[in-house]
């Protein structure tokens, strides 16, 4: 391996390690799963991983973490669209000029942000893949997110998920999760992020709901820790999402 190629590999891995969300050490000889903030999962052999100073530094920091910084608050009300045709129109007219290697949370943020310009207050639906599922199917992601909207129907107010990359129409929750869940399992809906601890071995996935303002999973954890909801756009998050998901400068 040339020195330049080695440098690139080392740089890419070091960069990835600086964006760790969490780590699953596994049991016995299972590989260590490193969960990145952008949703990717990196596998490392246990003997190799436990010698890695970056991984060990993260584990130490996790055990000694302090409080998160509070977020600015403002009012938030979900928009209820009057009929399903409005949902279809919103889906069909959503922008699809995203970069193919863009991240789901950045696409979802821009879709929601641009719909807000139309006075539509959407929500977000998060699907988290359990560690059992990731290991069983060698799955490469630990979460996925897409915007969702509420609509008035003859059966009351219902939610539809608008995943403009992976779906061809607005979907009900089960139809949406089936796109990603290879064993057809139901994904329990949880209220708090830590509720997922009830399902690491008994289910393949779980789902959370949030307002349109939430950008990455750590903010769901943040709300549970300090009780402060995120009810505002953060300019840097919107700016970064435009650039990295749509190659557009804000």
In short:
The chain is an alpha+beta fold and 250 residues long. It has helices spanning 3-17, 46-49, 53-63, 84-92, 104-116, 131-137, 173-178, 217-226, 235-246; strands at 20-24, 32-36, 41-44, 80-81, 123-129, 143-153, 156-161, 205-211.
CATH topology term of the largest domain: C8orf32 fold
Assess the beta-strand content as a share of residues: 15-25%
**For the CA atoms, what is the radius of gyration?**
19 Å
The low-confidence runs, each spanning 5 or more residues with pLDDT under 50, are 1-17, 63-75
What structural class is derived from the secondary structure elements? alpha+beta
End-to-end CA span: 40 Å
Largest sheet: 5 strands, mixed
Helix content: 25-40%
- Give the SSE order as H and E letters: HEEEHHEHHEHEEHEHH
Q: Helical stretch count?
A: 9
Q: Any idea what the shape is? A: globular
Number of domains: 2
Oligomer: single chain
The total strand number stands at 8
Mean of pLDDT:
82
CATH C-level category of the largest domain = Alpha Beta
Name of the CATH architecture of the largest domain? Roll
How would you sum up this structure, described in words?
The chain is an alpha+beta fold and 250 residues long. It has two domains: 3-63, Beta Barrel (OB fold (Dihydrolipoamide Acetyltransferase, E2P)), CATH 2.40.50; 80-246, C8orf32 fold (Roll). The protein contains nine helices and eight strands. The chain has helices at 3-17, 46-49, 53-63, 84-92, 104-116, 131-137, 173-178, 217-226, 235-246, and strands spanning 20-24, 32-36, 41-44, 80-81, 123-129, 143-153, 156-161, 205-211. Strands 4, 5, 6, 7 and 8 form a five-stranded mixed β-sheet that branches. The relative contact order is 0.15. Residues 1-17 and 63-75 have low confidence and may be disordered.
């Amino acid at each position: 391996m040339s020195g330049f190629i080695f440098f690139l590999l080392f740089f890419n891995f070091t960069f990835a390690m600086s964006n760790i969300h969490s780590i699953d050490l596994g049991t016995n000889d299972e590989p260590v799963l490193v969960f990145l903030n952008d949703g990717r999962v990196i596998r490392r052999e246990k003997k190799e991983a436990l010698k890695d100073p970056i991984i060990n530094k993260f584990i130490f920091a996790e055990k000694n973490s302090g409080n998160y910084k509070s977020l600015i608050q403002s009012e938030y009300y979900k928009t209820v669209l009057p009929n399903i045709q409005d949902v279809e129109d919103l889906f069909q007219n959503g922008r699809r000029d995203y970069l193919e290697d863009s991240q789901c949370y950045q696409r979802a943020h821009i879709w929601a942000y641009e719909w807000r310009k139309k006075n539509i207050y959407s929500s977000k639906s998060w699907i988290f893949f359990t560690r059992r599922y990731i290991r069983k199917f060698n799955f490469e992601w630990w979460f996925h997110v897409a915007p969702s909207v509420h609509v008035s129907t003859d059966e009351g107010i219902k939610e539809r998920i608008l995943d403009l990359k992976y779906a061809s129409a607005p979907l009900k929750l089960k139809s949406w999760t089936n796109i990603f869940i290879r064993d057809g399992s139901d994904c329990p809906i949880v209220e708090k992020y830590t509720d997922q601890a009830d399902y690491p071995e008994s289910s393949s996935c779980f789902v959370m709901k949030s307002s349109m303002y939430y950008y990455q999973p750590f903010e769901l954890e943040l709300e549970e820790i300090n009780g402060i909801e995120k009810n505002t756009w953060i300019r840097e998050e919107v700016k970064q999402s435009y650039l990295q998901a749509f190659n557009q400068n804000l």
